[in-house]
Design a protein that fits this description.
With about 90 residues, this protein is mostly helical. The chain has helices spanning about 5-40, 45-65, 70-85. The chain contains 3 helices and no strands. Helix 1 (about 5-40) packs antiparallel against helix 2 (about 45-65) and helix 2 runs antiparallel to helix 3.
C-alpha cells in the first residue's frame, strides 16, 4: 500500500482509466463481432451501414490512446477487406 499522497492519487486515477479503457474495449469487440455476424448472414447492405459505426468506435479508441492508431487502421483495413471480398 502506498504511503505518499501522490501515489494514492495515482492509484485512483489508474483505476478510473482502467475501467474506462476496459469498457471501451468491450464495446469495440462487441461491435466488431456484430459486424462479422452480419457478414456471416450475407447481409451486406446492413453490414455496409454498420461498418461506419465500427470505424467511428475504432477511431475514438485510437484517439483516446486506448488502442494504438496502427492497430485501429489495421483492423479497419481487414474489416473493409472482408466486406468487399466475402469468402
Amino acid at each position: 500500500m502506498p504511503r505518499r499522497k501522490t501515489s494514492l492519487k495515482s492509484n485512483r486515477v489508474n483505476k478510473r482509466k482502467h475501467t474506462r479503457n476496459t469498457k471501451v474495449k468491450v464495446q469495440l469487440k462487441k461491435a466488431i463481432k456484430k459486424f462479422q455476424e452480419l457478414l456471416a448472414k450475407k447481409d451486406s447492405a446492413e453490414a455496409k451501414a454498420f461498418i461506419s459505426k465500427v470505424f467511428s468506435q475504432l477511431d475514438k479508441a485510437a484517439k483516446k490512446n486506448i488502442i494504438h492508431r496502427g492497430t485501429a487502421n489495421r483492423k479497419k483495413s481487414r474489416l473493409m477487406h472482408r466486406l468487399s471480398n466475402p469468402a
